[in-house]
Protein 1
Amino acid sequence: MAIRNIVQQGDDVLRKKCFEVTAFDEKLAALLDDMKDTVRREEGAGLAAPQVGILRRAVVVDVDEGFYELVNPVIVAQKGEQTGWEGCLSVRGKRGIVTRPQTVKVEYFDRGGKKRKLTAHGFFARAVCHELDHLDGVLYVDRAERVERVKD
Ligand code: ZN
């Protein structure tokens, strides 16, 4: 396990569409373990593989509801709306107001290749949507109605 460097806004890797994970192997397990270590160290709510320079459809989400690893995740249903502040470990020193669904249903695979689903509400849903955007090269600043500087 290891802490990986987090890519910052301006790097092309954050703007690319990620490839599906096809091998549920030790390399994927190591990536997910490293992402867990990295997001915990940075006290983030989540991290997507392109943020550590890997163009694969894998994210981790670490919120009050628990720690989740989502491989090849897809939002299959969404409901409602919430508007609030959001930040990103790849966009240091800023935060923005973003509108997201209040509830999302997600289908995904776990690290062993087993198909799973979850329903996320509130901040959990916001974190899931934010991380899934990264897999398509989208940053929250693209969706924000307002962005302001904050102290790191
Ligand atoms: Zn982010």
Protein 2
Amino acid sequence: MQFYNSMTRSKEPLVPIDSGHVGMYTCGPTVYNFAHIGNFRAYTFEDILRRALTYHGCRVKQVMNLTDVDDKTIRGALAAGVPLKTFTAPYIQAFFQDLKTLNVQPAEVYPAATDHVPEMLVLVEKLFARGLAYQSEDGSVYFSVAKLPGYGKLAHLDRENLRAGARVAQDEYEKESYGDFALWKAWDANDGDVVWDSPWGRGRPGWHLECSAMAMKYLGETFDIHTGGIDNLFPHHENEIAQAEGATGKPFVNLWLHCAHLRVNGEKMSKSLGNFFTLRDLVEKGWSGREIRYVLINGHYRQPLNFTFDALDAARTSLARIDECVDALTALAGSAASGTVPAWAVAGRQAFEAAIDDDLNLPEAFAALFALVRESNSAMHQSALMPAQAAALLATFEALDTVFGLVRFGRAAEGGIPSEIKALVRDRASARANKDWAGSDRLRDEIAAKGWEVRDSKEGQKVKKL
Ligand code: AMP
Ligand code: ZN
């Protein structure tokens, strides 16, 4: 597989440090509010990436941080008059719910910044030892960008503009105003009771520090892939590199991948512009997580994507086409064992693989998926598909869908069985697994009393209307 590396600005092959395993760090949410669907463009892009790696048999270890201490979370907690953790907890919970709604596979580790302050302090100590950190008059600790020759290599900064000793205290700032950035911020009244002790006095960590410290803790000093939205590239990722490489003297990350923004009317969707929708806003308007996911992944991740309700409409139509085809294949396959797929399906799968292997070319991957839908429909229309081939085609769709995460399988097979009956059948399966034969028989009778027959076969329970 090859990916566009933001550092070198060219496509490069992925060569995992530990063959067959990929370590990947993705900058997570700042949990002061509900994430908006612009944020979820970044998280669905990262989900596609991990699914594509998994498709190729890689074992992925993904780490996503939760930024639960920064200017915004502290401001929110003070305004609400509650401790920081009490303020952030519901947003963390909402974030995980939203990921589920969007069928985003969970990362392996979700470290919270407030649980890793000791690791951050060790990192700052190393930077002092290497002469890269200093304490200013106000007690805050800064990183001296002039002392690290490689500073600016990710954002391709012009070091000519470097103004020695100029400092920026905010977490976010523009390229033009770069200077020494805060590693540790001395306590001030705005911080309320959010404070930690350090060798440099009481204070709290700068935003950039958490990601370097937690990435290295869970993935090692050098790891394979680091991702984020393009707005993270500078200053956040540049500063992550400076802190990590400044402390270890080793390369921090092999591949940097950034997704372009989700836009509204040509502008970045963001909280500060007020032009955003949360996932919840859209679900309340009647859109499903699947439809929203479709819109978010239906484009090349390096191209800006414009959010519109027309796109959601189109997603609904496209998903219905996929569903109808898969349902028809399911009905045709019945209980047939999987045979071999027609030649066009082999070619379709190859086209899909070539697309995702080339820097996650999702537009081409979708084209391959819809070509399979078209060919399947036309083969079924001409009665040219055997049940065993339909079963094999379903397996192909399932394989592709391990990356897309969009398709609903098994609807036709389950079609018409009321959820009440399905629940009883599930209970009966657990009764049987527990060798509770009396319970199993009782449930069979109960199911029969409701007009359904359940039979036991080698493939499990079969249900049909009496
Ligand atoms: P934040 O909570 O602001 O730190 O952002 C979390 C993630 O969402 C980061 O990876 C950002 O780069 C990303 N992000 C924020 N806004 C957008 C947007 N409009 N489109 C795509 N990604 C975004
Ligand atoms: Zn980060």
